[in-house]
Amino acid sequence: MDVITSKIVTLKNCRINVLGRFSDSAGFVTAQGRSSSDDPDGFVFEGGFLGGNGKVNLGRAWQPYSRVIFHKTYFSSIVTPHGWSAWHYAGNESGITYVEVDCGGPGADTSNRVSWMKKLNTSEIEQFSLASFINKDGWVDNLPIQSS
Q: Where is the Pectinesterase catalytic domain (predicted)?
């Protein structure tokens, strides 16, 4: 059996419910890390819902090449206007890839997001879809199917 060592995570049509915090500071939905620009890892959220109470940032950089993508996700008003944090990599944001494409809801207004958030159009986001990003070498298509 092959061991999959990649940390690529795709969450499709999931519901994320954020619970309020005991402080005034906003929490974080993700803390993804890549140690180099060649690292293929990342978090991809396709569809789904982000809601709850309190305030939350979409992510913070755990390592200098953090990559998180939200595509067609509904954001409630709990998402902070700036949305993202460089965390310990402030001043070195060029390696960080944070993307929002075709998201909706009151928390999806990107007019006050961090200036270094990446802009991708719908066709560019396809490279991070389940078929391209996760199943690039066809391993998902070749999984054995068990009948019940």
A: 8-136
Asked if the structure places residue 108 within a domain, the reply is yes
Domain carrying residue 92: 9-131
Rounded Cα distance between 56 and 135, Å, is 31
| pTM of the entire predicted model | 0.80
3-state secondary structure the chain: CCCCCCCCEEEECCEEEECCCCCCCCEEEECCCCCCCCCCCCEEEECCEEEECCCEEEEECCCCCCEEEEECCEECCCECCCCEECHHHCCCHHHCEEEEECCECCCCCCCCCCCCCECCCHHHHHHHCHHHHHCCCCCCCCCCCCCC
Q: What is the pLDDT of residues 91-135, one digit of tens each?
A: 999 999 999 999 999 999 999 999 999 988 777 777 766 555 555
In a domain, 139, yes or no: no
Whichever domain contains 74, its CATH number is 2.160.20.10
- Structural domain total, the chain: 1
